[in-house]
Structure prediction request, 467 residues.
Amino acid sequence: MSVTFDPRTKIFSVVVLSGMVLLSPNLMNQLMIMIMTILLCLMFGVNIFILLKKIKKFLVLFLGIIVIQSIFTNGQTDLVFIGSFTILSVEGLQLGINYMLRVLVIVFCGAIVSSSSMRNTMQGMVQLGLPYEFALMTSIGVRFLPILMDEIKQTYMAMELRGINIKKIPLRRRIELIGRLFVPIVNATLVRAKKLSESTEMRGYIIGEVRSSYYRLRFKGCDIILGLSIIIMAFLILFIIR
Amino acid sequence: MAFIELENIEYSTKKRKLNKEKLFNGLDLKIENNAFVTIIGDNGIGKTTLSKLIIGEINPDKGSVFLNGQEVKAYERFEIGKMIGYLFQNEELQLFCNKIEEELLFSYEFGEGITEEIHTRFNNIIKELSLEKVLKTPINKLSKGEKKRVAIGTILMNTPKFIILDEPTVGLDAKLIDDFRNIILKIYQQGIGILLISHDMSFIKSLPTKIYKISTGGIVNECNI
Prediction:
């Protein structure tokens, strides 16, 4: 039997996880937070494999950041070095992995929030006391990002289909060319934003008006149990297992 | 030899993969050089996906797509662009400049350079697409029909062998559709092959085109309307 959690439980878990990952003092702590995040993702029905597939491209970036962190960190235990110049040290590596885990936890948190429907997430935010406008803007932003990404991809492809070999253009000209990409993208975004604001106004959404709703979210037993478990886990990870 | 060839294509979108459904399950299609082919089919049946497979935007799960006798995978995107022009459903995504002249010469400005021959080609295309009157008008002030013509102009500047038109009549009124038909016919008469994706039956009926219908699973059948 599958359990559907209240979006407020998800928002609460995301706030706790992000807070924990920022406060965590060492690598061991962060690893435990990562495990806790994965467990919560599974409980909330986030498909981790699809998520990992999506962020696969960024793994190279993460590795690059680990190396850069390591180069600029004065470590005492060198792992890879050329003469007196340290490329990789144990301390640098630790710092890089720290960074990677923090980013991964934040990405997973995003997936947890978007595992509820837009309507439910908004209702959850409102019932938590956040201003309605903030809830609306956040949910629109989350939902529009993939569309924007798709348009950027299409525009880039359109540029390549013009027969331009982008790889062969000198760097300065390439920057100029990429700058041109923004013309259709900004244009499409503005048009979309205008249409969206018109349609929301047509449906009676007026900024500043107090909105009411018949729909109410109610906590279930499983939400309370999970909420308490999250608090206990957070306490254990941050203050007991150090 | 077929210019475009799709051989035993199997393809699923991410969403369909989760439900273990296939959008195309063994799709075969051959389009000859200089042919005029129209693809029809219900919404979501995979018409646009088919065109994306042809230009290599997406790869099939199984099977192969050939362009001019060579697998699409073997080409760089800019090489495909030199052979095939693609008119997007939303043409605004393929317009990067604010002046028509800049727009049409864009690929040469960042590519091989603008020669006398390119200028002559530009002038011919402007005449052919009846864009003389709006030549000085900023692109963002043009009507949808005019923007479509500018986008076609950018494609013709590359002297492609084939053009893919994805729902070109959407948002155009009867007069603009009529103008667009004349443009397509002119292009076809120049020996450029055309792959039209459309729902507009009266528009399709008025064109000298072979019609293929895609059905569930990517079964392609030639049909008459």
